[in-house]
Amino acid sequence: MSKGLLIIISGPSGAGKGTVCKELMSMQLPDLEVSVSATTRKPRTGEVEGISYFFKNKEEFIEMINHNEFIEYAQVYDNFYGTPRSYVQNKLDNGKDVILEIDIQGAMQVKKNNPEGVFVFIMPPSFEELKHRIISRGTETQQDILKRLHEAYKEVCSSRNYDYIVINDDVHTAAEKVRSIITAEKCKLKRCKIDYDSYKEE
Amino acid sequence: MSKGLLIIISGPSGAGKGTVCKELMSMQLPDLEVSVSATTRKPRTGEVEGISYFFKNKEEFIEMINHNEFIEYAQVYDNFYGTPRSYVQNKLDNGKDVILEIDIQGAMQVKKNNPEGVFVFIMPPSFEELKHRIISRGTETQQDILKRLHEAYKEVCSSRNYDYIVINDDVHTAAEKVRSIITAEKCKLKRCKIDYDSYKEE
User: Fold this and answer.
1) pTM of the model
2) Cβ–Cβ of B189/A165 closer than 8 Å?
3) Domain hosting residue A56, numbered range
């Protein structure tokens, strides 16, 4: 069996990477799965262990960090989030394609140790649209918004470190593009195991 | 306007590259065109200058060779066939994606001077199927068939020089894969012209 693809879908907040991933998963491609993260935050109603997250307490999480058991992890306020290495590796070894939907910092951690991954940057269609999306969440002060816009600009610039850029002006078109990227990557010479001798007349 | 893609579709005879190209063109992708070759062979009934071929006499063709006006050309028995450079370049400059459906020798000529092209190898699904396709043409002696099979084996091995390998076990699936390759190539970082500064808050 050939190994699955590791696909990293990332981008600034407000680019819509979550919606693009959901749309992609609704296409039900064979062998495509979204990775499940580990977290120290408490389960919310309806969340299921091993499906929504792997729920860990802080001690367990820190031990996993110390044993290098994460492909990437981050602390967000009081909670830790991370992608368990063995979980992803198992899937890949079993021929599953695994999507990591993560932020830019996480993606850059993954790239360091998994350069064979396929790095896709979801780009907001324009600054105006990004601004609109950030503002329309409606929960932030003017200063917070400015800070987030500046952050987003820096993140947009980091797209230079990715393999592909998908502009998210329409979520279905963007998901179709990611689907095409996965199909094309599987056709790449380096990923095709051709048994040349089987084409030889005895 | 961004430049179009040069897509080279090649493979051994019997791999079905012609049928895959026809199927791809029937999908009517915007801005995708098949290149028109020049030839010294006489027009057949129904063939139209500039659509089927650019018909040239031998002197004209040889003058074009001497002026380096072909991306690739070949002599097949008494006739010459070639891809006119200016015709293709004009299309690309006008943002059209251009498909060259050519044999392995032609593809390798193209690669020398157009490494930015996207090189797709159409692979017969198996030796048995290739044999079946070559034999079922029914026009050749046992010796001719053996010679063609050996030729095909050598050509299969040359797929190592391509960017992508598309196995043609089903013509629609194969054409869909080529379509995905075109879509994915357009999302590649190096082909995306992002105006980073437009994402900067004034």
Assistant:
1) 0.92
2) yes
3) 6-189
